[in-house]
Amino acid sequence: EEELDELDHRDEGQFWSTRDEPDERENSPAYEPCDSDNERPAPAPVVSLFAIGKLSRYGFDRERSKQALEAGGGEFGATLEHLLLRVFCERFGQKAVCPDGLREVPVDECLAQRQEEALALAAIYGERFSERIANAVWTVNLDLSFLSGSAAGQGGADGNRPARAQKVCQFYLKGK
């Protein structure tokens, strides 16, 4: 048995067969020769439960999310874009998604205008502007500490009781 262990080049915890041993694979009962790749069933796309959960948190139905993920090959970004496009079409109609005059505009002109807008935003915001995905996603990082500071400063004169707004209905303030 030790001699067989020495001849076995697999790792200690490896229990699957390798292609280095064609005799074992050919004699194996699990081995079924295939004449062509077309006869094999196509593997079903893997649908991530995490992706389904994330889409359901965005407000999409779980079953519809699962179907869209399967249709999109399991890619979350493409599925989200597809679902949002469907919602937008259902809500505002096909003309809102793709106006008639838009088809006549050349792609080069659209890209040039997009680059001009990106250049203008970069000039305004400097390093706070970044292009995450080329020609698709831009981000602007803003320091909004003044908002949190102004919210903290509304505590009133003594800091414990909230300041009363002058133009708010007294019945609304009482909760009636």
TrEMBL record:
Which InterPro entries does UniProt cross-reference here? DHX57_UBA (IPR042615), UBA (IPR015940)
Q: Where is the composition biased (Basic and acidic residues)?
A: 7-27
Top-level division of the source organism's lineage: Eukaryota
Ranges of residues in domain UBA:
36-86
**Residues covered by region (Disordered):** 1-42
Protein name, UniProt field: Chromosome undetermined SCAF5250, whole genome shotgun sequence
Q: Tell me the organism's taxonomic lineage.
A: Eukaryota, Metazoa, Chordata, Craniata, Vertebrata
